[in-house]
Amino acid sequence: MSQVLVVEDNQDIAHLVSMHLGDIGIKVDHASDGVTGLRDARSKDYNLIILDLMLPGLEGREVCRQLREYKILTPILILTAKTAEIDRVIGLETGADDYMTKPFSIIELVARVKAILRRAEEYQNVTPTRSAHRFPELGLEINTATHQVFVNGQSVELTAKEFDLLWHLARYPGQVFSRSQLLDSIWGYGHEGYEHTVNSHINRLRTKVEQNPANPEIVRTVWGVGYKFGNGSQSSRH
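Given the sequence above, the corresponding structure tokens read:
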């Protein structure tokens, strides 16, 4: 059974989310402040953390930042009443995987949660003998069974969504994906106005895997179109 931690100080919202996730067989724990949420997230393994930004004790962005510093890579879905672009981007840049703005549709929230958990399960079912994918020309190795990434032999810590994004691009070297296509494939939706979600993750991913993020070789920009993996000549070696 999947386990989700909901960190939300609004009791009505927390109850609504817990009830609907419980209806699809998900076990939900609830924390009503940032300090408790951080403690619970560090002490127990969750499949997903749903995190409000405006929390008493410790705000959500700081909770998110500290979790990533502790190398806790559990997917994080931010809930926020803020609508300013900068607040959304900062939330993503602190290590969150996705966000929804209040008021939100509970149907959409459940769909997002299902998409995140489904992708995690897909990776768990990868055949171990074909889990290591090497791209020698880029000094890159991606292990889909262990979710490990190595750049020039050094381990790189990626969040779940950063890993999903890198692996999706790597599966199709040279193929260009628009932001809308990546939203649909990685996040499970393609709504207008969410393109900066992709931008933030691409930027964060580049700082971790590129030798020179300002001149990327692994995740390249095709101006006016989208992003691609390498120059198209790379192929995976097992």
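The chain has two domains: 3-124, 128-229. Try to locate this feature in the token string yourself.
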